[in-house]
Amino acid sequence: MDGETLYSIGELARRTGLSVKAIRFYSDRGVVPPTDRSPAGYRLYDIDALARLELVRTLRDLGIDLATVQRVLEREITVAEVAAAHAEAVDVQIRTLRLRRAVLRAVAKRGSSPEEMELMHKLAKLSDEERRRVINDFIDEAFGGLDAHPEFVAMMRAAMPELPDDPAPEQVDAWVELGELVGDADFRSAVRRAAEYQAAERASGARSGSGADKQLVELTTAKVTAALDAGTAPDSAAAQDLLDDLLPQYADLFDRTDGPDFRHWLLIRFETGNDSRMERYWQLLSAINGWPQRPSLGPVFDWVIKALRSTPRAGGRPSA
């Protein structure tokens, strides 16, 4: 090694910015072994050892474990391979930290209790696949084994919560509320009853499906919204006149004849399907996924149900 420049541990420390203790540790572990020793037995290192230490410091500063660093130095894996794998790990850490930040902001905004905070964190940290499983389990329990409005069920399965990597506190709030909603036994039972009703209607040959229901909603919304804006009470004569105008059109949609039996059937249909929690389900999905919020139809159908119940000519009871 004549003519080759060798460095003591102290000189390496000055050149690399590492402590003498750290260099001695790496040397003892075989990561950067000494090139030679002085006559007095002190460790000496060549220019290659200096380069290895620079690489070790860089990789360690990036959070790469010592075992992986040794594999790089021994050329078992390349720096590029390590960088790619570590970048993926850092991405996961970043997503986790962003999610924790969103949960903490939501907790601070809501003034949550420790129990609520634990639930929020548990639900928020679920993966996309786990969130989809939560929703699909709800759909399976509510609609499984029933021939009930297949277009609607397909739409529900297509609309899954997609919490972004950096969610806003409002999105975390919405997912937590949605998770609680689909886990509520009473809500599940209510949706199941509505699905069973729809399945029975389909089995009886009654016209149903997204086409008829969409037209029914459009007919109802336009006229009842105007009645609501005008302050028309559902038990008033004006409400009775509005029903007498609307219900024959409803009957045409379902290939039926307007009359007491039809009006009673329609009342049961509205009562069965008009659950504000289902509307809340779609509102929460929209909040999570960043979709535009649709105007609430709850007040419209609440008004129609009250009008059907309280107006004599609405036929609250079927004919004998």
Approximate helicity band: 55-70%
Class based on secondary structure composition and strand pairing = mainly alpha
How many angstroms does the end-to-end distance come to? Answer: 113 Å
Strand neighbour order, sheet with most strands: 1-3-2
Give me the strand/helix succession: EHHEEHHHHHHHHHHHHH
Radius of gyration: 34 Å
How many strands?
3
Major pleated sheet: 3 strands, antiparallel
Form type? rod-shaped
Overall pLDDT level: 84
Q: Topology, pairings included?
A:
Layout: E1 7-8, H1 9-16, H2 20-28, E2 36-37, E3 43-45, H3 47-61, H4 66-73, H5 79-110, H6 114-124, H7 128-143, H8 150-158, H9 169-182, H10 185-203, H11 210-229, H12 237-253, H13 260-273, H14 276-289, H15 298-310
Question: What are its keywords?
Answer:
single chain, 320 residues, mainly alpha, 3-stranded antiparallel beta sheet, 15 helices, rod-shaped, disordered C terminus
Descriptive account of the structure:
With 320 residues, the protein is mainly α. It has two domains: 7-77, Multidrug-efflux Transporter Regulator, Chain: A, Domain 2, CATH 1.10.1660.10; 128-314, no CATH class. It contains 15 helices and three strands. It has helices at 9-16, 20-28, 47-61, 66-73, 79-110, 114-124, 128-143, 150-158, 169-182, 185-203, 210-229, 237-253, 260-273, 276-289, 298-310, and strands at residues 7-8, 36-37, 43-45. It has a three-stranded antiparallel β-sheet. Strand 2 (36-37) and strand 3 (43-45) form a beta hairpin. Helix 5 runs antiparallel to helix 6. It is rod-shaped, with a radius of gyration of 34 Å. The model is unreliable at 313-320 (pLDDT under 50).
